[in-house]
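not sure who needs this but someone in the group chat was asking about TonB-dependent siderophore receptor from Pseudomonas urmiensis so here u go. i didnt clean anything up, its just raw.
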Amino acid sequence: MLPARRSPKPLAPFPSRTLPRAICLALSLFAGSALAQAQSAPSIAAGPLDQALSTFAERAGITLSFAPEAVRGLNSPGLAGGGSLEDGLSHLLSGSGLAAHKTAAGYVVLPAPSDSGVQLEPTTIDAKGTQSAFAPVDGYFASNASSATKTDRPILETAQSISVVTAEQIADRKVDRVEDAVAYTAGVRVGSSGLDPRFDMISVRGFETTMTADFLDGLRQLGSGWLSLYQTEAYNLERIEVLKGPSSVLYGQISPGGMVNRVSKRPSLLAKNEVQIQSGNYNHQQGQFDIGGRLDEQGDLLFRVVGVYRDAENYIEQLNNDVRLIAPSLTWQIDPDTRLTVLAQYQERETAASPMLYQQGDHLTNFWQGDEYFDKLEQRQWTLGYEFEHVFNDTFTFQQNLRYGQVDTTNQYLQPYQERGTVLDRYAVGVYEELSSLSADTRLVSHFATGDWQHTLVSGWDYALVDTKLFYAMGPAPSIDRFAPNYHQPVARPSDALADEDGLEHRSGLYLQDQIEIDRWRLSAGLRRDWVNVRHSNNLVADNSANRNDNDSATTGSLGVLYLFDNGVAPYASYATSFLPQSSSQPDGSPYKATEGEQYEVGVKYHPPGSATMLTASLYHLTQQNVLNRDLSDPTRSIATGEQVSRGLELEAVSDLTERLKMTASYSFNDAEVTKSTDGNEGKEPLNVPRHLASLWLDYRLPLGFGVGGGARYTGSNYGDAQNTVKNEGYTLVDAGVHYDFGGGLDGVRLAFNARNLFDKRYINCQQGYCYRGEARSLVTSLSYRW
């Protein structure tokens, strides 16, 4: 029996004064910079005119409208900063034949007056053309995204399916978890393990993304062991981008279904300040704030601070749902060509280590089997990183993103192993993990022309390191009576070691992707070479026989073509591959062959000119090879010979239909099949992959400040075992909300009431012999002030 090598300190109690002090600090920071809010022209690097105008609008905090086709292919000389906004815009547009006109709604870029002196009247041109993939956007519609190209590029011109969940969608639905935030997204399935607050369970096109495609600001959030996974509060995000299909060319080892990229809130003059308090059922109490602004007159120094404090329980009353988070960020425009953004985050949380209810044979009871004091997942994490950009000239831009972080996890729960009448005999389980990780992405973005071909060439190298320590133990625990439970019994820390391991992973890749514009054609081609090295040491074995040192490498590629019609219709076709090393090894210690993904996709996007609407339809054929199957010659071994195919259709609509009405809608059909297997399930449907998913959410602001929102999410039936004999029935969950915006002297104050699973639909989802109950109804009342 080996003692644990470390004893993680328990989380400090959540002090009741933490949030008020944090809010006061943030308010004082804001007040200290409020005197510097006078508008003046920011400094802007030379480069493509559309990017210069978008950056100008973001840094100046103004609405700037222009037609994308009017500035396509034009360059701007940049701006040193200072002076009036009008003078700054005039300098940015010099030599372009365009001029900026001031209107009641902001500024609009139009052709400059001709020599004849004819003055063109300002008109309303697509204001959404000025959006940035990193800045706040109003409403549900996002015109640009960065995940598919690592550049700020219009979604309409990208030959791949992309969905964006904006901060306003997150706020209107009052969700805390990323899993809940993407629940209305086409092709995305959540809740396969019911309510499990330990981590986000997200599947894209039938493939899990939890461990393999979890990204924050374009950098992988590395996880290892059992539960050492970085967690992200949805309130700290500006948006969530879901990129569908294999994406190894830009991101390396990844799920073939796609990736979920969380984009942090960062300093921006377009961001509104907010303070909010919440109260709800299950003793939900929460306070949060989002405050930022200028630290100097010209706006070269911007700050933003996001904080969350939550003291709550789940529908199992013994399970906590506590979080405290502080996330400061700072942007420094060093000179017109150089910019640095520093992002930091510290978070502590406590929830259930085992949220499962006791299962009696095939029947899932309503009895929780743990102990309130012992059963817990305590996690402390922090990250610190930066995003650096330097523009050398009109052609070359250097960018580097880097983040370092640590996660310490204590995971303890009680597991029944025998039933004696109404009494359950239990044993204690403890999993103690430490993780530190480093992620970096260094790239050169090149803008140049070869004849009529306009190129945006992204070439780079990314690297990731993750160092883990895992101690897994079990020990004796007291019994519990199901009909007279005592949830406060003394339980000793487990000390019988089952695993004591150290792990070190190195991942790196060289990539190249060219985005080409030829008149109305948009072409893309990418290539990448990946290397991965994984070392594991077993400290329970005296010699080195159980240690592993695995190496793997792969080459992946992508191709895309899109045609952009004048009326906003854009048909496209794409091809992409991916690879993902297996997490387990063969009995002799050698690694299994990595799984490989391949996808063909065709689709069409429609963005009516001048509107805030995006309609997308896509068809895909996605194959994953080298899935582990049983070795028929030796049932104790596995072989990487399996194959799974997903063939599907996705429809999605996102629109700010009017100033008062916003909408998201989606439908997904996935014909998934196990096409090669030695496990006897060839021709069957894979586990937990519904054929049908559908959703609709509407939010409407009535006159006199009132507003209502509501939506429904449908998850179709699916199978919970490989032989397709256990079927999970489909279910529909309804969400709703009402809100009231005060006016007059209370302008910016909103009172809201939100309900998730409004009708308290109870459903059970089973997989491989285990059953999970879905989340019960949750109710939240909130009061917020924005300015």
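also Helices lie at 18-34, 49-60, 68-71, 85-92, 167-173, 178-181, 248-251. if thats useful
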